[in-house]
Amino acid sequence: xxxxxxxxxxxxxxxxxxxxxxxxxxxxxxxxxxxxxxxxxxxxxxxxxxxxxxxxxxxxxxxxxxxxxxxxxxxxxxxxxxxxxxxxxxxxxxxxxxxxxxxxxxxxxxxxxxxxxxxxxxxxxxxxxxxxxxxxxxxxxxxxxxxxxxxxxxxxxxxxxxxxxxxxxxxxxxxxxxxxxxxxxxxxxxxxxxxxxxxxxxxxxxxxxxxxxxxxxxxxxxxxxxxxxxxxxxxxxxxxxxxxxxxxxxxxxxxxxxxxxxxxxxxxxxxxxxxxxxxxxxxxxxxxxxxxxxxxxxxxxxxxxxxxxxxxxxxxxxxxxxxxxxxxxxxxxxxxxxxxxxxxxxxxxxxxxxxxxxxxxxxxxxxxxxxxxxxxxxxxxxxxxxxxxxxxxxxxxxxxxxxxxxxxxxxxxxxxxxxxxxxxxxxxxxxxxxxxxxxxxxxxxxxxxxxxxxxxxxxxxxxxxxxxxxxxxxxxxxxxxxxxxxxxxxxxx
Length: 493
What we know:
With 493 residues, this protein is of the alpha+beta class. The protein is 28% helix and 27% strand.
């Protein structure tokens, strides 16, 4: 399947996308404000130690202190083993790497077990661990990679062979290992001269991260909307033997619009995603998890068997769920409510289809078996906010609840405010409010009983505004003999 990458820039932010065929499968925003700091290394200072939680908090130049767990602190002898107890104290200066960027109200997750990621290798200074990507499943190949890692690593250091390591020759791997070791030495030198909170190593920009994580032999083209970045990427690709891969885009239309990506990006914001057969998915995100509901919609199947129809829909949904998890950059727990199936064989096949579809995801995913309630749960490693958060902001009206007050309740609040106005001794009340709410008050005669009884002898003037938010209104009292009001003012009933 043809795969393309796209990098465009606006206001210093980088917008990156990956397509398979003509479908968007990944979207990333790399803000100019460096919102995503994962992978960066800082000089920090321990400001608090919590023995009961076996963790410490570290000031490292960000708005919120970072969280450092005991398991992310190497033992004092430099063996890289997990600490049984906290080996840091308040005031200690430490070199820390960001595992997870700050998300919401939570500070960054930090580690002192540093790692430097290359295209084929992950270098682990002072951590004597050898590993092979789980995606390399052939046992003979895994053994060969482990033996090669032993030859490439320096004394006391570790290496992890990434998924595409078998595609590189030994010379390329040895060169990359030395390059990553040099990055660590540069970080150590910067740390020695840095102040607390200083950045001593900047992880790769989004275009470098994506290029190093993909098998370049699978890429067809890399379209770039910046001449400066184009030159950098072209240099990277030439060294990798793919010198004709990069394309500088300078067309009259915006790149993402021209290639049809903008329309697909908008899909990320929709709670509903249509499937090709007429069925659809519904997404509901909470702080703790994401819930996905599968519905048959307009799909009635191609056979007389309801079970087969449901099974076919669930298989299609499993593939789309995996794509959406990657596209939306979901993190944490995801619960999928597939349509109920009677066949145990079908249920197992759907779970396996989801597991297989998630293999193309670069983030670590773990799929559980179907629960007793018929739900399928999987986890996806979260390193930063999902794309919904990156593309939106909290509604200034509903404050994130997703709802606004009903017309009746807004009118009730207005009634409370008017009644309080009269209780303060005023004979007249002037209400300025949304025009739509005013129309509802009139058409439903909401205040008619109150006006003719408890407010008898009082005057309530209402001034509608088309530009007012539905929930916004003001009420003021007036006892002057002559009132000056706009022509739009109406005496209530």
